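User: quick one, fold this
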Amino acid sequence: MRPPAPGLTVQQRQIVGYRAIGFSLRKTAAQLDLSYSTTRQILLSAQDDACVKSTRVLVYQSVASEAITLEHPAWVHAAEKAARMSSLTRHVWAGLRLNTADGQDLATAIARTSGQTRACVESTVSKLRTTWKLDECGLVGLAYAAGVLRGVEEVEPAHLAPGVSRSQREALTLLADDGSTYAAVDDQLGAAPGTAAIRLRPLGTRWGLSSLSRRIMLHGAFLRGVVRAHTPTLLAVEDPSAPTVVSWLGLDVADHQLPTAIAERSGLRVHHVTSLLNQLLAHHDLADLLRLGFTHQLLPRTDHTPARLRRTHLLARHQPAPAGPITVTDPLELLPPTYTAGTRHQPRLSSLISRAVEVGLDVQAVRMSPEVCREFLRRMHLPTSQWGPVLVDAEERTVWLLLRAASVLDRWCLARCRPVRPGAILPLPAHTTPTNALHWLYPPTTWWEAGDLHRALGHSTDAPDRPRNP
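Assistant:
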């Protein structure tokens, strides 16, 4: 959807056209054989009629609506040169279209949308003026000619969600670029690997998101106005079910569970949903699909994620224990015979409630068979109320024991189990929902210690001998 075309007279279009290719107001007046004051008055009248606060915005609306055309011989290779600029520079350049007064108001508005400081924005604009030898009006015209502006962007400044820091806005803006990844954002920021994820983790927690998946984070950002959700693209897939699939892209579930979740809610078959997702992602970047969903109102402007899929906020540690007994199932027969289910319990490790954790960053994890876990729990001689986290997958017949992230594991002492590789994601269930295949054996109250595993599993006759120095 293009910006509205301003109703310009022939003389106004001539003035705006000269300003769009970088002519100063005095040079424009000389070209049209008008006085400076008359030219200025005609331009101010055009701005008032278009309800904009600057000639920059009038230039953008005029070129985007094709009220004027741009022809400048020096701009032939502008697109190639602009493509080599950094993503942040292009964001600042595109921000010159915003409908604010010139000066500090413009720099502040661009800073809010690009995630940079006002001083950095002012410095970038100054470098653009020097590089292209143009003022802001000429830069707006050149941005459209070079493809930095596509003619569909909104001109009103974004009203950002509260509680979003400058560094978080910067990371989200870069993450919304076509084909971007967390690694690419780290490269753009010149930061160490994992920096972008660390910056956005508190924001995901505040928004109640289940993971830092690019799809889920961008949906949250578009939903709250942190990143603008505008795109000129139409769906390249003609299947009539494609808009339905797009309308459910905001589901807060793991990416590998998305086809199943969409199928359950839309009535489509899972393989059909999977095929449509593959076709859509082959023609569109994920960020563009989300933008398209909001632009064409396929995605609602409120969070439609079912409550049972939403992440329990980490502030749950300040809430009372759930009413009623906690039911625990034990299909792998790991619990001792003396255990009695139905005891009310207040879990202290609320950081392990209904979230996806990253091994090495949030926790350490050890994977083992039910037989090894049964032997471990028997050797520990601890009451169930003092057990650490025991995560059970009854279908896969696999058990995970969770330790603090800083725990150091001796792999030679743990020959009968396997430490989970760093970076792996573990989806953790709620403490009170044992009906799924993946569930807690007992609501955890404390962490397992590395020494516990070494003592209970490190002296098995099945374990290989520790290599010794000669």
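User: anything notable?
Assistant: The chain is about 40% helix and 5% strand.
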